[in-house]
Design brief:
The chain starts with a helix and ends in an 8-residue tail after the last strand. It is globular, with a radius of gyration of 19 Å. The strands form 2 sheets. It has an 8-stranded mixed sheet with strand order 4-7-6-5-8-9-11-10, sandwiched between helices. It is an alpha/beta fold and 287 residues long. Helix 2 crosses helix 9 and helix 3 packs across helix 4. 32% of the residues lie in helices and 27% in strands. The chain binds S-adenosylmethionine and zinc ion (ZN). The site of S-adenosylmethionine has 20 residues, from loops.
Length: 287
């Protein structure tokens, strides 16, 4: 029995028919009879056969990201996100955190550690990520699901949605958030990893101008925005892990990997913006 899935059972919905879900040993079933195996690692796969799997992280990419998360920049980032969650969760008895494109659930894990009564649903299209996520904690339900399809989560279920370096579906974010709930968006700044990208001719990052995000969040109010930035000296191995864990991971060829691994250490800028958005209390009334 997955304790983590059981803890968020009331928030889960069937990906076929949106009915409520019941978690039993080894299986998640909806009221209409659709059933989904719970893997022995503890995650449930809610992908439907309409899903075209694209950009799912491979096992190697997931492994590289786990190593990258151990570095100071990402540890501090996780602590900052966790502190924001903790202060939002103080007045809620069992806060529910949803992390779309959550990978290994690294940031949800940091948040649930600090916001001690919270539970989380971290979902990702990668089964490799879900396997790692399911082992992370018994307070994070690991789910395989597509950000671009209706999320397998009921409306008005989440206190916080954590969108960290992941594909963003704001319509679904708004649907699952409780009125007055909070969206935390972490996005790379233009110069994030700039030295790595110029040295290795890597893919440029998606430019996440705050105006673009804000235009898509008409029913939200931006309550806070800050930048987390530092420079880290990375050796070849760390540079390789960094590139493998992002969008470049889908394109690296063996000869590129060899060149990166052999390179001299480089000072690399890490810079991300963290913005916090509250869903307006009257948002649903205006629909
Ligand atoms: C750059 S990673 C970030 C992962 C995690 N948020 C983190 O920062 O550690 C992007 C994640 O999005 C996932 N992803 C890509 N397309 C997706 C989709 N359509 N639905 C769900 N997850 C998706 C990938 O598998 C990957 O784990
Ligand atoms: Zn169903």
């Amino acid at each position: 029995m997955s304790e983590a899935l059981l803890a968020v059972q009331s928030a889960l919905r069937c990906p076929h028919c949106a009915a409520s879900i019941k978690i039993d040993p080894g299986v998640a079933k909806c009221d209409a009879g659709h059933s989904f195996d719970i893997a022995r690692q503890g995650y449930v796969n809610f992908l439907t056969n309409q899903t075209f799997i694209k950009n799912a992280d491979s096992a190697a990419m997931v492994g590289a990201r786990q190593k990258m998360h151990a570095r100071p920049f990402f540890q501090h980032l996780a602590q900052q996100i966790a502190q924001v969650c903790e202060s939002l969760c103080r007045v809620i008895s069992v806060p529910v955190i949803v992390e779309p494109g959550g990978g290994t659930g690294f940031y949800a894990h940091a948040a649930t550690q600090v916001a001690s009564s919270s539970v989380a649903i971290s979902f990702d299209i990668s089964i490799h990520a879900a396997k790692v996520c399911a082992r992370q904690s018994n307070r994070i339900a690991a789910v395989v699901s597509d950000v671009w399809h209706p999320w397998p989560i009921g409306e008005n279920s989440a206190d916080i949605v954590l969108s960290v370096f992941s594909p963003r579906n704001f319509a679904e974010t708004e649907r699952v958030l409780k009125s007055g709930g909070t969206l935390i968006v972490v996005a790379p700044k233009d110069h994030h990893l700039v030295e790595l990208r110029s040295q290795f001719n890597a893919l440029s990052i998606q430019h996440d101008k705050s105006e673009t995000i804000s235009a898509l969040l008409g029913n939200f109010t931006n309550t806070e925005q800050f930048v987390h930035q530092s420079t880290e000296l990375l050796d070849g191995q760390a540079m390789y892990e960094t590139l493998l864990s992002g969008p470049n991971g889908h394109h690296l060829k063996p000869k590129d990997m060899e060149a990166i691994l052999q390179s001299k250490p480089l000072d690399v800028t890490h810079s991300v913006s963290i913005s916090i958005w509250k869903l307006n209390i009257d948002a649903r009334a205006s629909e």
